[in-house]
Amino acid sequence: MAGSEAAWQAANRGIPVVIHEMRPKVKTFAHKTENLGEMVCSNSFRSDDSEQNAVGLLHWEMRTAGGLIINTAHEHRLPAGGALAVDRDAFAATVTERLKSHPNIRISFEEINELPFDGQWIIATGPLTSEGLGRAIQAETGTEALAFFDAIAPILYADSIDMSKAWMQSRYDKGETEEEQRAYLNCPMDKDTYEAFIDALLAAEKTEFHEGETAGYFDGCLPIEVMAERGRETLRHGPMKPVGLTNPHQPDIKAHAVVQLRRDNALGTLFNIVGFQTKMKYGAQKDVLRLIPGLENAQFARLGGIHRNTFLNSPTLLDHQMRLKSKPNIRFAGQITGVEGYVESAAMGLLAGRLATAELLGMDLPQVPQDSAHGALVHHITGGAEAKTFQPMNVNFGLFRPLDGVKGGRRGRVTRYKGYTDRAKEAWTTWLDTQTLDANAAE
C-alpha cells in the first residue's frame, strides 16, 4: 500500500520512479498473488465518514491529494454499511496495472538486502520486511527490531452458508441504500452455543512461536482466541456483540452473540468473518468455526493465519520528514514506521512520496500540518509518541490537538469531531495548495 502510493505521488509530479518488488521471486507467508497493493488481512478500509471519524477524514485527505489507493478502493467498493470495503482481487489488479502503465514508473522484481548509500529511497516493506533487509536496517539503527504478531481472518464460500439460520443486515440498518443496510451476513448464538464456542476456542490447538519469540499483539488486530483468554465475555462485547441486529428467523428472540461476515468480492461468492483473526491451526479452525450457527458446513477459500510484523522505533530513528536520521537519503513509509492499518500505511506512503519529490525538486515545503489527519499521524510516529513504550497506532482523534472552546466528554463528541475534521480539511488543502504554488515557481 505505502510503496504503491509513494510511487504514484512522485511519478505524477514528473519524477522517474523505480519500484523494487521481491515478489514473486521471493514469497511471503501472507501474500497469495503477485499483485502490488494486495490486501492480506481484511478487505476493509474502515469508516468512510469524513466528518465524525478520523479514518474517514484520512480517506478524504487522500482523495483530495489524488491518492491512488483510496480512489481505486472507491472504484471497487462493496456494500459494507458505513465502511469502505472492496473486492480485494480487482482492487489489487487495478493498482498494479496503473503503476505498470505509468510512463514515469519502472518495476524491478528483485530483493533488496542492503541499505543504499546514494539516491532517494523510500523503504515501504510493510509488515513483512525480508530477513536480509531487516538485518541491514537493524545493523544501521543499532537497535533490536521491535515486533508484534498480526493475525489474518478466514474467508469462506458464500454458497456454503446456511441462510435458514443466517440473515443479511448492517448493524442498526446503517447505510443510505438497501444494499448498504444489508451489507453484513449475521450468524446468531444463544447463550449455550456461545459458551460451547468459547470452550472450543480456548481448547483449540494454536500456532506455537519459535524459541525466543514473544507475542506482542496489536490491540486492534487481536486473534479471537487471545480475546477469549482475556475473559469469556470479551468477544461478546467485541466482534460478536449482538446490538443493533434483529434476526428475521426469530424476531422475538434476542441473540446472546452474533458473528458477522462481510462480502469479500464483487460477485458476492466470498465472505470474510469480521474481526475473526486467528492463530488456531488449520484443522482446529475448521472444527471451531463450524460450531457457529449457519456455518456448520462452511467451506473455506482461505484459513486464518499469523505472521510476524516488524516496525521501527520511529520516534528515535526518523526525522519529521520520515527520513532515517543516520541516512537521510532513505525514507520509511507504511506499517514499518509504526502505523497500523491499510489506510494509515497508504497515507504515510503518500506523504513520503510528496516529501521526497519536494526535496528532489528543490522545494521548501512547510511541515505537514499537525491539525490534519496525515499530520497528526506522522507527528505521532516521528516524535509525538513516547519512544520507550512506542507501539503501532491507528489514526484517531486522540492524536489531534485540542480545540479551543469545545466541550469535552461524550456529550460534546459530535461537535468536537466535526470541529476536528473541519479544521483538518482546511489545514490539509492549504498545505496541498503550497505545493502547487511551489511547483509552478519551480517551472
UniProtKB/TrEMBL annotation:
One Gene Ontology biological process: tRNA methylation
Record's keyword terms, sorted: Cytoplasm, FAD, Flavoprotein, Methyltransferase, NAD, NADP, Transferase, tRNA processing
Cofactor(s) this protein cannot do without: FAD
GO MF annotation, one: flavin adenine dinucleotide binding
InterPro entries named in the record: FAD/NAD-bd_sf, MnmG-rel, MnmG_N, TrmFO
Location(s), subcellular: Cytoplasm
Gene3D superfamilies from the UniProt entry: FAD/NAD(P)-binding domain
Gene Ontology cellular component list: cytosol
Limits of the MnmG N-terminal domain: 2-363
Known EC number: 2.1.1.74
Reaction(s) the record says it catalyses: uridine(54) in tRNA + (6R)-5,10-methylene-5,6,7,8-tetrahydrofolate + NADPH + H(+) = 5-methyluridine(54) in tRNA + (6S)-5,6,7,8-tetrahydrofolate + NADP(+); uridine(54) in tRNA + (6R)-5,10-methylene-5,6,7,8-tetrahydrofolate + NADH + H(+) = 5-methyluridine(54) in tRNA + (6S)-5,6,7,8-tetrahydrofolate + NAD(+)
Task performed by this protein: Catalyzes the folate-dependent formation of 5-methyl-uridine at position 54 (M-5-U54) in all tRNAs.
Entry similarity comment: Belongs to the MnmG family. TrmFO subfamily.
Protein name (database record): Methylenetetrahydrofolate--tRNA-(uracil-5-)-methyltransferase TrmFO
